[in-house]
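Worked problem 6 (solution included).
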Amino acid sequence: MDMVHLHLHSQYSMQDGLCNLDNLIKKAIKFNMKAMALTDHDGLYGAIQFYKKAKKAGVKPILGCEIRVKNNQKSNQCWHLILLVKDKKGYSNLCQMITEAYLSNPGPIPAIEKNSLAKYSEGIIALSGCKKGEIPFLLAQKKTDQAEKNAYWYQQVFGQENFYLELSFHGLSQEKEVNSKLIKIGQKLGIPVVATNNVHYLEKNQASSQGLLNKIANLGTKERFYHQKLETDEYYFKSPSEMEKLFFQAPQALQNSIEIAAKCNLELNLGQIHLPTYPLPLSYSAPNYLKKLCLEGLKKYYPTPSLKVKNRLTYELKIINQMGFAGYFLIVWDIVCFAKQNNIPVGPGKGSSAGSLVSYLLNITEVDPLKYQLFFERFLNPERIDLPDIDIDFGQLGREQVISYIFKKFGSNRVTHVSTISTYAARSAIRDTGRALGFLPQEINKIAQLMPIFSTPGVIKASLQHLPELKNLPYQQEPLKSLFSFAQIIEGKPRHLSVHASSMIISDQSLSEVVPLEVTNQGEIVSQYEKESIKDLGLLKIDLLGSRSLTVIKKTLEGLKEKNININLNKIPLDDKATFSALQKGKTLGVFQLESSGMSSLLRRLSPSHLNDLIAALSLYRPGPLDSGMTEHYLKRKRGEEEIDYLHPKLEPILKDTYGVILYQEQVIQVVSTFAQLSLGEADLFRRAISSRSPVEMEKQRDNFFKKALNQGNTEEETEKIFNLISKFAHYGFNKAHSTSYALISFVACYLKIHYPAFYLASMLTYGMGYYSSDRYIQEARRFKVKILPPDINKSGAGFTVEEGAIRVGMSKIKSMGEKNLKSILSLREKCKRFNSLYDFCYKTRSSKINQTLIENLIKVGAFDFTTYPRSALLNLLPLTLKEVRKKAQDGAQNKISGDNNSGSTELIAADLIPAYYFSKALQMNLEKEILDLYVS
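Solution. The predicted structure is:
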């Protein structure tokens, strides 16, 4: 007899399921199952992937969820309920149900109140659930009448055709008794029964692994992941014949699983784009308003535009409007405008968006695509309908302000953060497994630290085979055998949901109708879908990245402005000799994208003299070009050590600037278009196919390329050579639009560092640490003859500041200086103008609860050097000073003590208390390093 599994947990039942989606589908095909449901705990995390994979494999996907239900908000008891989607309305309702379970439930466990089920019941089939379902639970408690009432209630909520009593048997005697009662209730109330197996793992022999996974969950801190251990080894993916043997007395229950599958016919139009509507001024359509803004930008950037510029703008607007993306560009324009109007730095571009003239004219990007030979088709291809991908870098400090604006502009119910599912990396898999198996913490840490820091599956196995430190361990013997064996099982599997670092969704409708939402531990609302599933659903995803480098540049300019030095970044000479001299010498410590030792070495060999060289450097310093030899070919050809071969005269104008090397993806498009007369859209499809290295796609594109190239009069030999050249380099080619945008930031950063080192490095130390520790940047400042001043209680700010050409260390660097203490000190200093002595400071800050340890640290790093007393003397006097402050405060002599005459008094410092020694240089430096994490002296 055929049957369909309708109660099934994949690995997306976080820490309670072992089933990989691909293996589940293979299993269904092996058993000739025409359909299968996915019912993970509390969500639809893997639903879109499952839907796509199952459809492709010819298995009907049924989306569902095992949701938790409770009687009311005050109830602590939750019941499990299986919900299956019949159609689009049901999908929308299930998304809203899951969202409400998280957002409306104050406790740690997501649950929906029973009264809310009716509101979302349309398009849903409900099964009464496993033994943790309300009806089975009541029957197990001998509360048959109450169970009947609840069964009738659920039937009324979901409808007579859409509620089933769930029969399951996993070898437990209690299940037999409950199943018998369920059948009787079904006959009495006219509710059909359906047979399920509560699948948590694929094979029977994986039961012990499942048990250990549950143990890991129960040792964790997240209560919603706590799961009762499965008592038997019967919770695996059973075949139809096995299910038939179990339910031979109730064949209709198996038949009903087929009936339910027939009722579930959800069709998700994946790839269909759903853009939010941009609020337009009266009398404007989105295309007209976009054109208006572009023409305004044209006057600004091209006062006398050439025919080439006009044609490019007309072409881009035509494609954008044909594809229905005018509103998208307006949304991004609006967001960027808000940031720039509020003095939040925005990057000049990112990714392929810099290839768009429209983006440039809207001031979304700051790279002229015509000047740098960038192609619109690399960004938006008319031959391939896909959402444009505009990623934007914002200053790290202003990003949250931009996000708040987006929520306010488009509605909090239509905007949310995108999730990312954290998976078990090699180290975390070892640690969690070891803890569950009872290893001592020090034993686990010792082994875990030998593992590489990667999150891809297979790292543990490869490490055991290749790392000498691990190969010497007795990992084939217990207990290490079990440790490594199980760690490999959970490696790469989902662990929990996190917030994606940059991605957000803006929807054209209430998000909870199309995407299930949940709340993270930090209180942020996120989609349960990762960004690929969001893209599949056709929702607008926008990446807003926080850039420390942009903040450093902004703060450098602000610091200069305070000293009446005004720098206009748009007027910085892009051929500045001093900047290129530093680049040629590899003096790029602290410079965006250029400060690693490898990049510094490349710059010395490349000897850049033009911005194009810097663009090339960012494209060359990547694993692909470095490993393939492309970087070496480029450098040798640039230095004249290797002959430049263009293979064909048609390629010379395209590859001249890169010495015959196909360095950029845009060059691939140019070569293909020029040599074979493919349209730029077709040429981009060719580039994608070659880059993907898909044999099927490559062969398809090869045939088209050869056919059209030969039609242009090229010989077969020439065509073969060109195709082989492209095949060799295209996979490593980089996006020139992205390199150009980032090269501009790198150049600006280097320019500011070279010409205004104190201001740049002070900002760098405060807002944007790079590869190295603070000490490296302090040393770099000294190389630029910039003096480093210790913290001063009267002069230091929170961060590093510039003081008469020197860098003053900020107080936030001081150990034990919390944010509250720092604000308190700065606030008091603003009121009283300055602290006159150690005694004065201690008295004025007595109500701020500044502890003795912090004051000692301030003394040790020089914050009271202005008193002219040795640091050692001040440390000796501190206990006496604090004692006197407490005494005076208790005497109530506040007015007298806080007056100018007494607050600056040094009467407590007697000659016999002052030590006859100063800290040695070594001791002073060690104290600075300990307290500031850098050397000042």
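Discussion: Residues 211 and 591 are 51 Å apart (CA to CA).
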